Amino acid sequence: MKTLNIIGPGRLGKSLARLAQQSGRYQIAGVYARFAQHVTDAIAFIGAGDFCSSLDQLPAADLYLLAVPDGAIADVARELAACHIVKAGNVVFHASGVSDAALLAPLQDSGAYLASVHPAFSFADPALAVASFNATLCALEGDQLACDILQYFVLALGGKPFTLVKGGKAAYHASLTMAANYLVTLADLSLKTAQMAGIEDEIAQSLIFNLMQQTLSNIKVLGPAAALTGPIVRGDEATIEKHLAVLKDATILRCYQSMGLATIDLAAAHINKSKQAALQHIFA
Ligand SMILES: NC(=O)c1ccc[n+]([C@@H]2O[C@H](COP(=O)([O-])OP(=O)(O)OC[C@H]3O[C@@H](n4cnc5c(N)ncnc54)[C@H](OP(=O)(O)O)[C@@H]3O)[C@@H](O)[C@H]2O)c1
């Protein structure tokens, strides 16, 4: 059985640790955070692990998860390297979505294999996270041998591993940000625009959320280009001019225009070049 040290047993750290322990294929070894109470609480949640009050108290382990906030990963990697606990052949990984394994560079001289594992999942509540983690896609990136070993780790936890190309981390995370965060922004702007039509909040929410849900289902089945409906793909300039005339809020207008321009590209197969140019002129 492989052993795993947890550095930073916060929301993600303790969730993955408990899943690893429950899998029966990993034994949680040491658990370290700066505040003793956090470590004690985490060990109780995980159901395993030795209390460590400093990094140099960590026992030797096969794998090390640095589940500290992104901004602390490089410093903690430096501190861990200075402890000389990590040995050649160990695997050290962090869980940042945007940064790659290079953040762990201070550990390079130890001979350990370095990587990052990013579960595309929200660990807001660890108990809920453990219950619903199954089939979560997890992006792997870093040293080949580390990725090979971590594939088994992710599978043991019930996740679905996939590997990113070298240098792909920032684009990967930008993609998730657009899909998850900007979808929320889009819903908010759509609701605000519905308010301009005098629609009651409750009705506006049903209107917008049902349409978004239906559109998401269509995208999933048909793909983005075939799921596209509406004035742009119909080449309906007059309708778009009417929209632009009522969008007085600068933020809403800017978003409507830039999404409109991107939508012309998506609709390019259905509208001829001169219609595309006319639409671009309206949005610009
Ligand atoms: N939460 C999510 O949904 C999610 C999803 C995907 C990826 N991630 C990634 O997972 C990582 C952890 O995020 P999180 O949300 O789990 O953070 P979190 O809940 O804030 O937990 C951070 C943990 O790190 C410890 N810590 C903070 N600074 C430290 C330091 N300098 N040295 C040692 N321990 C330190 C904290 O305990 P002390 O304060 O006691 O030190 C705590 O146990 C991040 O890289 C994040 O991007 C998170």
Strand-helix topology:
Layout: E1 2-7, H1 11-23, E2 26-32, H2 36-46, E3 50-52, E4 63-66, H3 70-83, E5 91-94, E6 113-119, H4 126-132, E7 137-142, H5 144-157, E8 160-163, H6 169-196, H7 201-222, H8 224-227, H9 231-234, H10 237-246, H11 250-266, H12 273-283
Parallel strand pairs: 1-2, 1-4, 2-3, 4-5, 5-6, 7-8
Antiparallel strand pairs: 6-7
Helix pairs in contact: 1-2, 1-4, 6-7, 10-12, 11-12
The structure holds NADP nicotinamide-adenine-dinucleotide phosphate.
NADP nicotinamide-adenine-dinucleotide phosphate (NAP) is lined by residues 7-13, 33-35, 38, 67-70, 72, 76, 94-97, 118-119, 121-123.
Describe this structure in words.
Helix 1 links the parallel strand 1 and strand 2. The chain has twelve helices and eight strands. An eight-stranded mixed sheet has the order 3-2-1-4-5-6-7-8, with helices on both faces. It has two domains: 165 residues, NAD(P)-binding Rossmann-like Domain (Rossmann fold); 113 residues. The termini are far apart. The protein has 284 residues and is α/β, with parallel strands linked by helices. 30% of the residues are buried. It binds NADP nicotinamide-adenine-dinucleotide phosphate. The site of NADP nicotinamide-adenine-dinucleotide phosphate has 26 residues, from helix 1, helix 3 and strand 6.
Count of helices?
A: 12
- The overall average pLDDT, rounded, is 97
Number of strands: 8
Q: At the first level of CATH, what is the class of the largest domain?
A: Alpha Beta
Strand content is 5-15%
Helix-strand pattern, N to C?
Answer: EHEHEEHEEHEHEHHHHHHH
Indicate the overall shape: elongated
Structural class: alpha/beta
Enumerate the distinct ligands: NADP nicotinamide-adenine-dinucleotide phosphate
Distance between the termini: 61 Å
> Any idea what the radius of gyration is?
24 Å
